[in-house]
Automatic annotation (TrEMBL):
Protein name in the entry: IclR family transcriptional regulator
Occurrences of domain HTH iclR-type (ranges): 1-76
Pfam families: HTH_IclR, IclR_C
Gene Ontology BP term (one): negative regulation of DNA-templated transcription
Source species: Nonomuraea zeae
Gene3D superfamilies: 3.30.450.40, Winged helix-like DNA-binding domain superfamily/Winged helix DNA-binding domain
Keyword RNA-binding (UniProt): no
Domain IclR-ED per the UniProt entry, residue ranges: 64-236
Length: 236
């Protein structure tokens, strides 16, 4: 079992540092070079990594990791679509499905509102964790230190203590909201889709800021929280 854990740790470290050599990986992981070398050999034979070239052997991740991620993402999309459609029908607004990736959430699916006034975000766009409803919904379930918070608008929460308090409130009520914190013309509420080890995605209802007064925000928050819970249960 420990050999498997070591190999997975080495794979993650290669992905973070690529191209990376044995010595660099060993120092980063705190493992003996011989252990790292064995893991690299196993990962190479299994097709997960390949030599990056150069005088000293350095390693990089192959497309196999991306293929697995895509298959996982497609499964998430398939499960999410009926939940997203029901949420769109109940609200008449745009529904977003995002997944955490590093210090951001990435939009992987959306269902658009039929209303003429809308805000369209392209698939693949990255939104900051601390300045978006989807991001805060995810961040509230992560044990991650909060520091260096850039401002995007006048309402972006940039004080670490204030953000920690906001995330505690998100965790308590079950959903996060965005009051023009990334773009002043966008309002949203979002809830995390949880797996066994934490958040795997987030669902949101997104509208022009003028279309989400406080009373509606609370109503939408309850709806998106239930939708995210339904999706979490379907994936269990």
């Amino acid at each position: 079992m420990q050999n498997v854990i070591n190999a997975l740790r080495v794979l993650e470290e290669v992905a973070a540092r690529q191209p990376a050599g044995v010595g660099e990986l060993a120092r980063g992981l705190g493992l003996p070079k011989s252990t790292v070398q064995r893991s690299l050999r196993t990962l190479h034979e299994a097709g997960w990594i390949r030599p990056a070239g150069g005088e000293v052997t350095r390693w990089q991740v192959t497309s196999k990791a991306l293929q697995v991620a895509r298959r996982t993402e497609l499964g998430l999309r398939d499960a999410a679509m009926p939940v997203m459609e029901e949420l769109r029908q109940r609200t008449g607004e745009t529904i977003h499905l995002m997944v955490p990736e590093g210090d951001a959430v990435v939009l992987i699916e959306r269902l658009e509102t039929d209303k003429p006034l809308r805000i369209v975000l392209p698939l693949g766009i990255r939104l900051p964790l601390h300045a978006s409803a989807n991001g805060k919904a995810v961040l509230a379930h992560l044990a991650r230190p909060v520091a260096e918070l850039p401002a995007y608008t006048e309402t972006t929460i940039t004080d670490p203590a204030a953000l920690r308090a906001e995330l505690a409130a998100v965790h308590t009520r079950g959903y996060a909201d965005n009051r023009g914190e990334w773009r002043s013309d966008i309002a949203a509420v979002a809830a995390a889709v949880l797996g066994p080890d934490g958040p795997i995605a987030s669902l949101s209802i997104s509208t022009p800021a003028s279309r989400m007064p406080d009373a509606l925000r609370a109503e939408y928050g309850k709806l998106v929280t239930q939708a995210a819970r339904t999706l979490s249960e379907s994936l269990a």
